[in-house]
Amino acid sequence: MTLGMRILLLFVATIAVSVSFEMSVSAQESIRVKEAVAPVFPVMAIAALKEGRTKVEVVISEDGTVKSIGSIESPEILRRTVDAVAKQWRFNPVRSGLGDRRAFLVFVFTLVPADTVSDKLLPIYRPPYEVEVKGRIPTISKDAQTIEKPRSQNQP
């Protein structure tokens, strides 16, 4: 193979990789979150001490709304909450004719000690499609008949 042919092949390969990279970047950039809704940690899940990572597939219409919910990987006790919240997310619209898009949203439910301060309970959004919510583990009283509410930091 001549030197000129080698240079031409190298040039063509470089362009192909560049185009491929640009296409994958633009495809990923085509789905941008406009409104992310954080779930509320279900009281029943907190009482059952159920936490975990959930994953839901959403089908996004051209106008940016969630058209439908696909597969959900989630503990049963969190499923209804995840489904309801995922439907409320909003994404950037696209030109007509481009069709539906798909994305996977991740919701992480984490239990924290009962004495965790309130500002540590705020939801955390991690781009592109993940939200972590926290719930306090309830403190059970000595007689195990009532659940005590954790004291806030401002109360004596």
Question: What does this protein structure show overall?
Answer:
The chain has 156 residues and is an alpha+beta fold. It has two domains: 1-27; 31-148, TolA/TonB C-terminal domain (2-Layer Sandwich), CATH 3.30.2420. Helices cover 28% and strands 31% of the residues. It has three helices and nine strands, in the order αβαββαββββββ. The protein has helices spanning 3-29, 43-47, 76-86; strands at 33-35, 52-60, 66-73, 90-91, 101-112, 124-126, 130-136, 139-140, 147-148. A five-stranded mixed sheet has the order 3-2-5-7-6, with helices on one face. Strand 8 and strand 9 (147-148) form a beta hairpin. The protein is elongated and about 80 Å long. The model is unreliable at 4-29 (pLDDT under 50).
Topology at a glance:
Blueprint: H1 3-29, E1 33-35, H2 43-47, E2 52-60, E3 66-73, H3 76-86, E4 90-91, E5 101-112, E6 124-126, E7 130-136, E8 139-140, E9 147-148
Parallel strand pairs: 5-7
Antiparallel strand pairs: 1-4, 2-3, 2-5, 6-7, 8-9
Which structural traits does this protein have?
TolA/TonB C-terminal domain, 156 residues, 3 helices, elongated, alpha+beta, five-stranded mixed beta sheet
